[in-house]
Amino acid sequence: FQIAMATVAMTVAQLLAHPGDWMALVRTKRAADRAKRLPQEPCLAFCYGMLNAVSRSFAVVIQQLPEELRDAVCVFYLVLRALDTVEDDMALPQARKLPLLEEFHRYVGDEEFTMEDCGDGHYKELMMEMPKVARVFGNLDKKYRNVILDITKRMGDGMAEFIPKRVESVDDYDQYCHYVAGLVGIGLSKLFVASGLENRCIGTVKELSNSMGLFLQKTNIIRDYLEDILEEPAPRMFWPGEIWELYAENLEDFKEEANQEEAVMCLNHMIADALSHAQDCLSYMSKLQDESVFRFCAIPQIMAMITLALCYDNAEVFEKVVKMRRGLTARVLVNTHDMEDVLMYFHTWADVIGNKALEAYARGDPTAEDVVVLVEAIKDECKRYGYVDKGEGRSYLNLILWFLAVTYFLLVFSGNIRTSTFYIDSESVVQQAIATITLVFTSLFILS
User: Is 326 annotated in the active site?
Assistant: First the structure.
């Protein structure tokens, strides 16, 4: 009960500190409810139900896409999630896991294939119900099936390559992330082109597509340090030895408070590496033509940039999983529409990282100067694509609107105000409350 009350108190405090989150949360809740409305066809209903179970945010984002492409992306996601479940299951003996990874593409359309001893929770259910995914896969147009099979084969081979070996060098790190995420970016680009929504050039910019995947994957690897290092029966870590061995003898040392200074320096080094992909991501997104595809691609990239900003120089990464507050996530989901929005988020949060890096530089952080250079390059790239900083004027508007709302609230409840819009009877608490809530939420709508 105390934990629940503390969570409620924290949520209320966040909403008061960020009033613009309120309307975004309401709109996101509606979008999430729409995502839970499953198709009539049983196998397709299973696929979208599973998508909601394993990734609620992705289930919302995928709703941006037209139906034909949406179904293809949903199956693509679930097939690769199943493949990832095989890779992640540390209880599977290597002698069984390696051939499974290498041959998994052969089972994608097999309505007889199922695994009852792989994964946990929703992932176990997914593995047991793969025949339903296979049936939906079989109903997709051949142009989509070919892409899914190609990427599944290449990813399975790549995962098998890294099962028996550690990620030692930064080149190893880039190669592993290419296999598990860069190929996803390349596959999605091919699906976009196959759908006819995007120009063929998107399917040819493989380096940019790869960077889109690497930026997301590296962010997740950085953020999930503690969760991964504590994994049972044995952790699988992907922080490259070439980086972390500069700061510690063992990777698990970073979770000890006594090693916090070295841990944070290593963290900052890892984030510097991730930021090297940000400019490619901007270049890729600038080439997208369809708004639904753009939103689908842009929302996760923005969240990655914000997550890196929250993690940079933050020792809490080694104590818990650092996440965006729910209200900020909601705002990204509902307010991302075009390149201007992407540029605003990238520039704003790159600036946050830059300011933190200056403080780290003053403490002698060895990669802080590199981070400052990367941040300036990202901000320059944003300006090259037409970004204009409107933050200061908007922050003044937000402050004025919130001040008016609070003042109105105080005046109404002191019984000292009448408005031309509606009559306020000082003795009617209900009318006072309705009037106040109306103005507050009008202001919040403008704020959001």
Answer: no
